[in-house]
Amino acid sequence: MSTIKRILVTGGAGFLGGHLCERLVEQGHDVICLDNFFTSQKTNVAHLLSRPNFELVRHDIIRPIILEVDEIYNLACPAAPGHYQYNPIKTMKTSVMGAINVLGMAKRCRAKVLQASTSEVYGDPDVHPQPESYRGNVNPIGPRACYDEGKRAAETLFMDYYRMHKVRIRIVRIFNTYGPGMHPFDGRVVSNFVRQALAGEDITIFGEGEQTRAFCYRDDLIEGIIRMMNGPDEFIGPVNLGNPGEFTIKQLAELVIELTGARSKLVYRPLPADDPTQRRPDITLAREKLRWEPTVPLRDGLKKTIDWFRSIDMRQFRAPTPNY
Ligand code: NAD
Ligand code: UDP
To answer: Do the beta carbons of residue 308 and residue 177 sit within 8 Å?
Structure first.
């Protein structure tokens, strides 16, 4: 039997999706990248367009689409706070209607389907580090709710399709991931700090900078996602994927300054509403079930990210369009 699979990656032109498509194309699979280019652009995957086993489809996942596939990675959703809060109603539609559409496709095709969920399902956690069993502390009416609650509803839909229709599902909860290919204007902390440092601008710390995050390098994360998809059907998750190394935002700023050699000053700005105070994955389950753990320390990953930011022409990137 052929080991080559027909694989759909929704959000495949984005930061994580683009790298996932690259990996799957290299493995010889027949890859369909579906994207509406809200937070990405065709140029992100232009290097794959000449490959016979890669196909690009411009489509919005809130609408159904008929495709014949063996596996679906559902990554379509803006991930940066500035992007997902731009049109919060659309963000919720993308998570919920997108989940219904990929689950319907998986049911019809008997395909496996993986949901890219998020540590945001834990909200501002009062259990630390966060195991998968923790049910979270999410504000359902705040500015982050469109994303957090959208992703929580998507997890619910995945579990109900699994229980009701025996769809072969996987759920991964991704913690902050960074690396080459990030949108330079997404407003996330790593892209902001690196861009600011390289331009010699002030580094904007929100709040006191004492809030923590755990940063996972892109390649480690993609490896974890692929292992989860290829694991046994008995292990559906949810499983945390992230780097347990925890840093304050101020420590991150100092590291970026050190690695870029910038003379930037730290400046303090108001903390956005509902900004989680701490975040760190408990990855015991991923270690045990997937034999997975991150291999790239923050310092090394940041160096590669900084090199990539130095190599790009920022004028080639645009912010999300006002049409969405
Ligand atoms: P990204 O914004 O770079 O990629 C998302 C992609 O989805 C983009 O190409 C965008 O154009 C596309 N998209 C958005 N709405 C769509 C729609 N309605 N129809 C079709 N395509 C649509 O973000 P990313 O960092 O690559 O994140 C990918 C996935 O991983 C997202 O689902 C995100 O929620 C999840 N995730 C990412 C992180 C992280 O730190 N990067 C953390 C947790 C979860
Ligand atoms: N942050 C910051 N300065 C910035 C951008 C973000 O201090 O220029 C903070 C933000 O308030 C949050 C953390 O960095 O506490 C991570 O923010 P990001 O938007 O990257 O992701 P989040 O984990 O909050 O979704």
So the answer is: no
Q: Has 147 been annotated as catalytic?
A: yes
Count the helices and strands in the chain (H runs, E runs): 9, 13
Q: What local confidence, expressed as pLDDT, does residue 317 receive?
A: 82
Q: 45-62 b/e with 16+ CB inside 10 Å = b?
A: beebeeeebbbbeebbbb
- For 70-110, how does the pLDDT look when each residue is reduced to its tens digit (9 = 90+)? 999 999 999 999 999 999 999 999 999 999 999 999 999 99
Q: Where are the beta strands (DSSP E) in the chain?
A: 6-10, 30-35, 54-58, 71-74, 112-118, 168-174, 177-178, 203-206, 212-214, 216-217, 239-241, 246-248, 266-269
What integer is the mean pLDDT of 133-152? 98
What DSSP character marks residue 321?
Answer: P
Tell how far the Cα of 263 is from the centroid of ligand 1, in angstroms: 33
| Average pLDDT in the chain | 96
What is the structure's pLDDT at 316?
A: 83
pLDDT for 318? 74
Ligand 1 in contact with 65 (CB < 6 A)? no
User: What is the distance between the alpha carbons of residues 78 and 76, in angstroms, rounded to a whole number?
Assistant: 7
Question: Could you tell me the residue ranges of all domains in the chain?
Answer: 6-179+216-244+277-296
Predicted confidence (pLDDT) at residue 324 exceeds the cutoff of 60 = no
Which sign, positive or negative, has the C-alpha torsion 320, 90, 222, 188? positive
Altogether, the residues listed in the chain come to a count of: 324
Q: Which residues line ligand 2 (CB under 6 A)?
A: 80-81, 176, 188-189, 192, 204-206, 211, 213, 249, 272, 275
CATH 1.20.1050.10 fits 6-179+216-244+277-296, yes or no: no
